[in-house]
Design a protein that fits this description.
The protein folds into 3 domains: 102 residues, D-Maltodextrin-Binding Protein, domain 2 (3-Layer(aba) Sandwich); 88 residues, Periplasmic binding protein-like II (D-Maltodextrin-Binding Protein, domain 2); 67 residues, Alpha-Beta Plaits. 27% of the residues lie in helices and 34% in strands. The chain contains 9 helices and 15 strands. The longest helix is centred in the C-terminal third of the chain and has 16 residues. It holds the Pfam family HisG_C.
């Protein structure tokens, strides 16, 4: 049975639950549940603090974990665990910030105090930049307040919209430390039974979210041009119609391109253009 760690709360928790449900796995209904069995899929879910997931996976207590890339790297589990798959949600940027106009580059942080909730991640990054701060101040939250309260000269934190920083009179500076998103992690070099099925299902969810199915009728004279507009992942499906001069076409297109594709097809003479959602897929 595959043992999977899932965030029990926070920004990643709800999105992780939705994705796993779309992939066909049972998920808890009560947020107080810490363990849940899915016997039909031979999976057992453990709901843990996102920061702890990399530790459990790295030590081999659990097989697989769903966490953020920033949290995974901050856990400093060495080579015992590795990123297996990016999941496309929970995107954020880890950056330096300070009161407006105070700093312009990371190099200026030498000898300064930096507050963060991600000590390990920050230490590793500063080592690659040959920047030695006076100290790294660990805070579990409200990092933005540390400068105004005199605890630090700058901060390093996860930035999503930047509105919180702006409200605190701060701005980001220098290059981003890292780009983060939700990821699947596992023990390095180990492929437990059930992992390939999980990854295949999650990949199917990602594709289904990005694509829609488009169906339309088009004359054979315009088929080549229409097929060029909707090439699909491999090639479109072509079916004959009762009128031998026309065919029905079915293909996958990117969701964001849908209306432009429909307009192009209509201009080529295609008719009965229908778009439908894809709920599940295997590539």
């Amino acid at each position: 049975m595959l043992r999977i760690a899932v965030p029990n709360k926070g920004a990643l928790s709800e999105a992780a639950r939705d994705m796993l449900q779309e992939a066909g796995y049972l998920q808890r209904r009560d947020t107080k549940e810490l363990v849940m069995m899915d016997p039909d899929n031979q999976v057992e879910f453990f709901y843990l603090r996102p920061r702890d997931i990399a530790v459990y996976v790295g030590q081999g207590t659990l097989d697989i974990g769903l966490t953020g890339r920033d949290l995974f790297q901050d856990a400093q589990v060495g080579g015992s665990a590795e990123e297996i798959m990016a999941l496309g949600f929970g995107r954020s940027t880890f950056r330096f910030a300070a009161p407006i106009g105070r700093f312009s580059s990371q190099a200026e942080l030498a000898g300064k105090r930096i507050a963060t909730s991600y000590d390990g991640l920050l230490e590793d990054y500063l080592a690659t930049q040959s920047v030695k701060p006076e100290m790294i101040v660990h805070l579990d939250g409200a990092v933005e307040s540390s400068v105004n309260l005199g605890v630090a000269d700058a901060i390093a934190d996860v930035v999503e919209t930047g509105s919180t920083l702006k409200a605190a009179g701060m701005e980001t500076f220098g290059e981003p430390i890292m780009q983060s998103e939700a990821i699947i992690i596992g023990q390095t070099g180990r492929r437990p039974e059930g992992l390939d099925v999980l990854l295949r299902r999650l990949q199917g969810v990602l594709v289904a979210r990005r694509y829609v199915m488009i169906d339309y009728d088009v004359s054979r004279a315009n088929l080549d041009r229409a097929s060029a507009v909707t090439p699909g992942l491999e090639s479109p499906t072509i079916s004959p119609l009762q009128d031998e001069n026309w065919v029905a076409v079915r293909s996958m297109v990117k969701k964001g391109d849908t209306n432009n594709v429909m307009d192009e097809l209509y201009d080529l003479g295609a008719r009965a253009i229908l778009v439908s959602a894809i709920h599940a897929i295997r590539i």
